[in-house]
Amino acid sequence: MEKEKLRPFWGKILFLHGESPEGYFIEIEGERREMLQVLADPLEENPIAVGRWISGFALEVGSFLRVLRWKVIPEEKDLLPIEATPFEEGFSYLTAVGFPLHTAKVIYQAWGPGAALYLRARPYAPAEEGYISLEELDRLYIAKGLPRLHPARTKGLTRYYLRWVAYSYGHTALDLSTLFRFVRNEERLEAVMAGIAILIAEGEVETIEDKIALKSLYTREKEIADFFSQDPEENIPIPSASVPLASKLNEDQRQAFAKAFRYNKMALLGGPGTGKTTLIRALTDAWDQMGLKYILLSPTGKGASRLRQATGKEATTAHRFLYSRNQSRFSALVLDEAGLLSSPLLSAILRKIGRRTRVLLVGDSNQLPPVGPGSPLQDLAGSLPTHTLVTFVRQEDSSLIEAALRALDGNLFLEHLNGLVLPFQDTPPMEELWNLWKEQEDLQILVPWKPPPFGADYVNGFISKQLGKGGFFPGMRLIGLRNLPSLNLWNGEVYRVLQATEDSVALEGGALLSRDEAMRLLAPAFAITVHRAQGSEWEEVALLLPDGYSSLLSRKLLYTAITRAKKRFHLFYHPKALEKALANDEEERSTALRLLLSRR
Q1: Which of 100, 186, 373, 550 is the most buried (most CB within 10 A)?
Q2: Coil vs helix vs strand at 21
Q3: How many CB atoms lie within 10 A of CB 204?
Q4: Percent of the chain surpassing pLDDT 70
């Protein structure tokens, strides 16, 4: 029976066959008894974490589960044609296929006993999720005798490339010529061309104008387009006389304040120091006077904390909101730092709040696009009523703002920096960077990328070696890699270690992890990527800018890095890298959302 013909139902869990990147394999006895794949909700981006969260409440054998979204697992005709061991021996199957023991262990820990079933249905999922490189996985299957044009391979490669381009480069809809440039390998290109045709016929890939998109991401972006397609004009009275702060707004802010009462869906843009947070405070003061129930969200914990401090109102992170069991309805929603929201994350938020809620998207469209698929703020800003604040109200960091704006225009900005500026040629001056960090341990080091050459891994290793400490130690700075509400751990949040023993690691904020969990779920954060730094600010920031991945060096990267510093910004740069960054006016992401909005 097709998913659309089924209605939500309660059922008794008979067996947990494991988790997959798209849901949980559950044998359930309710109105129907069959093997179901209960789809991950609310976040498709990190469903394993969602699965563990739900597990804490419901997913136990013998308990009852309300199935809201699901699909019956079909008889897959295009399975990986490698003989399976018994279903319960998922780990044995992984090793029989040829995965190295360590890789098989990691996959089995993530997928559980259902690993064999899921791998046969989605053989390239280990590469999609980063457990093994595509090249190694493909060689492994070819060596096992997988025909090069077998549907398991053609579909698997196509899914991999569409997902990889979406999550690495943000493009959710691609024309074929662009997709083929990412494939590069001529032999795989033939397989991908065949896979596209099959997946379009099976409904797993959507076509929109001259582009193709994964159905899962297309659906998310269509939800966003549908949510904002209603008439945004809905005047409500402005109680400015009873809001003292409103009288202190400048003319630029007053215009935006009035628009926020005229439109129920609106984007508020502006760079640092233009008074976005002050305007949010004035609006929430007015909503308090009117008795409107609202919620303030930010993508990051630091952003939510800064919003609380600046407005005096309760604010929380987008992920905490999504994972909360609170089903309250709100009259208004403010999404601060909305430029950090990927399309799957924004669609999950909109799905939870309901279409009648007033929504104010607040952000800086000049920053780097979000980590993840899409760029919804940039897409919506051209479609929604939008006000861009241009009047600066914060003067203490005016030199850094000038430097950031010059970088954004592609102009040299070094004379406007107020910290150490040090060029280098071949190898970064790590001793000078180390000395600077020693003088100011709250200094946050930023880099353009994580891997070599001279990425975050290199800098973190260098500082740890200079400290003469290995493993985890008090004061160590770490960043979360997954959203795990049960552990009070959040992806992208920076933590300090309070206490570390042989068995456990305690973090500020209350998170307590076993050492094994800490190894899998945290990474050193003395240095982090500029992308990871979005939504956070530090008193002092140092950017290490080596020469390397040219596509990652851009004006927006420089702008974003400089605007993370509240008081002082230091730059260690390779002249060629700086030249490449200033010359690269990063292209817009190709998204289904933009195409859908253009049709309305």
Answers
A1: 373
A2: coil
A3: 16
A4: 81
Measured in whole angstroms, how far is the alpha carbon of residue 515 from the centre of its chain?
A: 25
* Cα separations in angstroms, 123 against 24, 119, 158, 437: 17, 5, 12, 45
Cβ neighbours of 500 (radius 10 Å)? 19
What is the Cα–Cα distance from 214 to 251, expressed in whole angstroms? 45
Helix (H) or strand (E) holding 44: none
**142 vs 149: CA distance, rounded Å:** 11
Position 26 confidence tier, pLDDT thresholds 50, 70, 90 = low
| Closest C-alpha among 437, 436, 459, 425 to residue 578 | 425
pTM, whole model, 2 decimals? 0.82
- How open is the CA angle 325-329-335, to the nearest 5 degrees? 90
Task: Give the model confidence (pLDDT) of 405-438 as tens digits.
Answer: 999 999 989 999 999 999 999 899 999 999 999 8
Cβ proximity of 433 and 581 under 8 Å: no
- Please check whether residue 510 is in contact with residue 429, taking contact to mean a CB–CB distance below 8 angstroms: no
Contacts of 10 (CB under 8 A, 6+ apart): 30, 64, 65, 66, 67
Nearest to 316 by CA among 564, 475, 508, 485: 485
Beta bridge partners of 477: 496
